[in-house]
TrEMBL record, chain A:
Belongs to the GMC oxidoreductase family. Keywords: FAD, Flavoprotein, Oxidoreductase. Residues 442-566 form the Glucose-methanol-choline oxidoreductase C-terminal domain. This is GMC family oxidoreductase. Residues 509-518 have a biased composition (Polar residues). It comes from Pseudorhizobium pelagicum. The keyword Secreted does not apply. GO terms for molecular function: flavin adenine dinucleotide binding; oxidoreductase activity, acting on CH-OH group of donors. Residues 500-524 are annotated as: Disordered.
From TrEMBL, chain B:
Residues 29-132, 174-282, 297-387 form the Cytochrome c domain. One of its GO terms (cellular component) is plasma membrane. GO terms for molecular function: electron transfer activity; heme binding; iron ion binding; oxidoreductase activity, acting on CH-OH group of donors. It comes from Pseudorhizobium pelagicum. This is Alcohol dehydrogenase.
Length: 588, 403
């Protein structure tokens, strides 16, 4: 028995970053909006209470804020010759749950992708010829960097990003990232006060002729009031960002930047603890009637709406499209179909330098407080003589000194016992870590679909992730690791390790919650699930917003681009779609 | 919508006849003035339930004598005040007598409203007549014997109640007199902020010097520069009343509602007048005591708790953070003779007022689960005696009484 609810103008699935931004924009437009969120309500004072929020066991180890497999699991395999099995615990990536979504527990690295990302196929073809990336399924996004500049700008000002511009309207600025695309103005806040390890890293990088700069951070370097009139407080550098909510209103999230205004709007309503089962289409399969969801009592509701916005985490967006029959599922054998196509991840490598005479006080930290260099990222360097495309940002961002998980030890240290204890004591304060965050490029065989065997508690097939690191990306990681080794030597510690990403994705150890693609944006409905405005090619009153739209993943954290795409989609809806509701904004 | 309806009626009446022309604009203007009187008097604070229909009856008020439920004052004939006349209404406001002769309890602040001018009361009446009538029976009197006998109020009024108009002070400016009129009459600030006698009446000679109510302490709001708001500039007082916060403080608790429903909707000239008047008033201890020594064991314990638990937001030096974390250093609220508000906030948490200019509504979490009575007492003693603050210590028993 399904209860049919009164119609709304817009139903939003998931109230994280993109859902909050779109809800704010569309309620400003005067639309009647309801957001349906699977998880609980969360707010700063009650849920990120300063008295207990810094509980590493509860939040980092037991993953209190995250989606649990009992709610929704996924299956994984490395390639189509294997049989996928369910992940019994999330490990490699940790998905958000509840209001604010993954925007609650992120570190706050806030990047802009480059124009050479958005037009990657054209750009690489022009520079190297198409043969250079023939093994990859690289494709343009359908937008340019210039088109998204204003959307990035608005997201950065919403968040209060601390950083230093490197290129303002074409003028290169000392101390910023010289490789970034032109931006209209500087970041809203100056960079954070730098800690010791990134300072040393930057000195070493500069000595080698590289161009380090302060990582753009969604951790407040100063008190800030955003354009919505919402105040945030200066970060205390407590070192509890990733996996934690922020107790101090110092990390940008839906809670600290949008919800105080959104929740008071009369034309907005939020329903928590309500899981959307599918989008309901009409008989023509080209128009969404609304969504069906179930609350915690098991009661099912149909929420009719003129527009449906899928704003869940990217992986969930893709699964909801498949469960609802929106678009055609991707088939890796034929290369046909678009939903599930171009699933990408992140190709990360690590390095540690062990010193005898340094004290880095690692507990003085923030999620994005550090230094980055983009000299070997994207196509900032010539790949002419190299056997790969793509690259990595090299980051020295010591995010924390938390006692359970931050236990660096030099190679050769036993894994337990007296010697291990002594080594953790010796190395805790005196180890400098840095990493390479590498691009992840699509291949024909990496994709998402519905698992043929395993089902969730509602009997719906689980999402199946078929992924391994492409050979191109492994070669990239290995080459970048060579550059990391150069920096490690320049830093001059007692000893160092460099660990480049190896083949064989393992879903157990944590790697990155940067899952992208599966509902990619693009110019061609045969290779993309949504158009350049994130509008479904197949069901035009459905927009699918999030990292699911990425046609590939760059060597950068995705959230900045996710936020920008939310504004980009909101603009398209407000300025174009509402004039002709139900129509495609781009003709196929 | 009401504004549109009013201007339409203006336009129509202009076309009809000169006698209507003379009549209608006057009525419309009067209703608008009356609506503003309802803002000044904050009728909704008591007579509108959270989420309920406007003025159709409020949430129960806990008084020291028992529970009272603010009645339905919409123009509903049966359950509201639809059968009242203007004279009935004036009598209720000025004398505390309802239209059937029932004596009102002074939870309805007629001891303040009595000072309102007949003109303002009539305007308010005109406005209330336009509110949507709502059928909602409310039994106001939930008091225990003997307080449930309304005639008791006859005696109370003889002792405690002085009916009569506001008397302007000819030696003061027009602005000062306007401020005094709002504070003493419609604004009824003293209802919360003036100490009460055992009988629940304002102690006239201690007006606005601070009082306990419903687990909070409404602080001294006289011009006293130690305990009152004398150290705030007029602009800072205006900012507080208009936005719910200023550089020194953020409104929470009952004042949060007063700001949201009433003071934030007042016009700037009236807010300025209130500031001018309040700053001219006097009352309470003006000499700071010696602060408790930092070496005192309770101060030392409090300092440790403060730096562990409070300093991330309120900062190590108690200066707080803009629009988010109220400053504790130099705060009159922190140094009141009673620490009831502070205790309430530490035990239960609280959330700041939401106004168009201050939209963050930051919240303080509850620490009742984490700090025991002695720890709450120590940390409060510490903040009341640090960074130039000085105030009596807080004891574990004080905290226990509020937990």
């Amino acid at each position: 028995m399904t209860t049919i609810l009164p119609r709304k103008d817009v139903v939003i699935v998931g109230l994280g970053w993109t859902g909050s931004i779109l809800a704010h924009e569309l309620t400003d437009e005067g639309l009647d909006v309801v957001a349906i969120e699977r998880g609980p309500w969360r707010d700063t004072a009650t849920d990120f209470n300063i008295g207990y929020v810094q509980d590493e066991l509860r939040y980092a180890i037991r993953k209190d804020l995250f989606l649990q497999p009992v709610t929704e699991a996924m299956t994984m395999r490395n390639n189509t010759s294997q049989t996928a099995l369910p992940m019994r615990d999330y490990g490699s990536f940790l998905l958000g749950n509840g209001v604010g979504g993954a925007g609650v527990h992120w570190n706050g690295h806030t990047w802009r992708f480059w124009d050479t990302d958005f037009q990657i196929a054209d750009h690489l073809t022009r520079r190297y010829g198409a043969e250079k990336f023939a093994e990859l399924q690289l494709q343009n996004w359908g937008v340019t960097g210039a088109e998204l500049e204003n959307a990035y700008d608005r997201f950065e000002y919403l968040c209060g990003i601390s950083g230093k511009a490197g290129n303002v309207n074409g003028e290169i600025r000392e101390g910023g990232n010289p490789f970034e695309d032109p931006r209209a103005r500087d970041y809203p806040l100056p960079p954070m006060q730098m800690t010791y390890a990134p300072t040393l890293f930057a000195e070493a990088a500069r000595a080698l002729g590289y161009h380090p700069f302060p990582t753009p951070a969604a951790n407040m370097s100063e008190d800030y009031i955003n354009p919505l009139g919402i105040a945030m407080g200066q970060c205390t550098m407590c070192g509890f960002c990733e996996r934690f909510g922020c107790a101090n209103y110092s990390k940008s999230s839906a809670q600290t930047t949008v919800l105080p205004v959104l929740m008071k709007k009369k034309n907005f309503e939020l329903r928590t603890h309500s899981e959307v089962l599918h989008v309901d289409l009409d008989a023509s399969r080209t128009h969404a009637r609304g969504v069906t969801y179930v609350d915690t009592s098991g009661e099912e509701f149909f929420q009719p709406a003129d527009m449906v916005l899928l704003c869940a985490y990217g992986l969930h967006n893709v699964r909801l499209m498949m469960l609802s029959g929106i678009g055609e599922a991707y088939d890796p054998n034929t290369g046909e179909g678009t939903v599930g196509r171009n699933y990408c991840y992140q190709t990360n490598s690590g390095a540690q330098v062990f010193f005898d005479d340094k004290n880095f006080n690692p507990f003085v930290a923030a999620g994005a407080l550090g230094q980055t260099m983009d000299d070997f990222n994207g196509d900032a360097f010539d790949h002419g003589g190299l056997d790969f495309v793509g690259g990595a940002g090299i980051n020295c961002i010591p995010t924390n000194g938390r006692p359970i998980q931050t236990r660096p030890t030099p190679p050769g240290t036993p894994r337990w016992g007296k010697d291990w204890k002594q080594a953790t004591v010796d190395s805790y304060k005196s180890t400098l870590s840095f990493s390479a965050q590498g691009s992840s490029y699509p291949t024909r065989g990496n994709y998402l679909d519905l698992d043929p065997t395993y089902k969730d508690r509602f009997g719906r097939p689980l999402l199946r992730v078929t992924f391994d690191f492409p050979d191109n990306d492994i070669r990239m990681a290995s080459w970048v690791a060579g550059k990391m080794e150069g920096i490690a030597k320049e830093l001059g510690g007692r000893q160092y390790t460099v660990s480049p990403r190896k083949k064989g994705w393992d879903s157990v150890p944590y790697q990155s919650t940067h899952n992208t693609g599966g509902a990619t944006m693009g110019t061609d409905p045969r290779t993309s699930a949504v158009n350049k405005y994130l509008q479904s090619w197949d069901v035009p009153n459905v927009f699918v917003v999030g990292a699911s739209a990425f046609a590939h993943n760059a060597g950068k954290n995705p959230t900045g681009t996710v936020g920008a795409l939310a504004y980009h989609a909101a603009d398209a809806i407000r300025q174009q779609y509402l004039r002709n509701p139900g129509q495609s904004l781009v003709s196929a | 919508m009401r504004t549109i309806a009013l201007s339409l009626s203006l336009a129509v009446s202009a076309l009809v006849s000169s006698s209507v022309l003379a009549q209608a604009p006057d009525d419309d203007a009067k209703i608008i003035r009356g609506r503003y009187q309802a803002v000044l008097a904050d009728c909704a604070a008591c007579h509108t339930k959270p989420g309920g229909a406007s003025l159709a009856g409020g949430a129960p008020l806990q008084t020291p004598f028992g529970e009272l439920v603010p009645p339905n004052i919409t123009p509903d004939e049966e359950t509201g005040i639809g059968s009242w006349t203007a004279a009935d209404f004036r009598r209720a406001m000025k004398e505390g007598i309802g239209h059937d002769g029932k004596r009102l309890y002074p939870a309805m602040p007629y001891p303040a409203y009595t000072k309102m001018s007949d003109q303002d009361i009539d305007a308010l009446w005109s406005y209330i007549r336009t509110v949507e009538p709502v059928h909602n029976p409310v039994e106001a009197n939930q008091l225990p014997f003997p307080f449930n006998i309304r005639l008791v109020m006859l005696g109370w009024n003889m002792v405690n109640f002085e009916p009569g108009d506001f008397r302007p002070d000819p030696n003061r400016s027009e602005e000062w007199n306007r401020g005094a009129y709002i504070v003493q009459a419609a604004g009824h600030c003293g209802t919360c902020h003036s100490p009460k006698s055992l009988l629940g009446a304002d102690k006239g000679d201690e007006a606005l010097q601070g009082a306990s109510l419903q687990g909070w302490y409404a602080p001294n709001i006289t011009g006293n520069s130690y305990l009152g708001i004398g150290s705030w500039s007029e602009d800072e007082i205006v900012a507080y009343l208009k936005t719910g916060q200023n550089a020194h403080s953020i409104a929470s608790g009952p004042m949060r509602e007063a700001v949201q429903e009433s003071t934030s909707r007042m016009n700037d000239a009236d807010l300025k007048a209130i500031a001018v008047y309040l700053k001219s008033t006097e009352g309470g201890e003006t000499q700071k005591p010696q602060p408790i020594a930092a070496e005192d064991p309770h101060m030392r314990a409090g300092a440790m708790i403060y730096h562990d638990t409070c300093s991330a937001c309120h900062r190590a030096d108690g200066t707080g953070g803009r629009q988010l974390f109220p400053a504790l250093a130099g705060s009159p609220l922190v140094q009141q003779p009673s620490a009831e508000t502070l205790t309430h906030v530490v035990l239960n948490g609280s959330q700041g007022a939401a106004t168009p200019e201050a939209r963050t509504t930051p919240a303080m979490p509850s620490f009742a689960w984490r700090l025991d009575d002695q720890q709450v007492a120590d940390v409060l003693t510490y903040i009341r005696n640090s960074w130039g603050n000085a105030a009596p210590p807080v004891t574990a028993d004080d905290v226990k009484a509020q937990r």
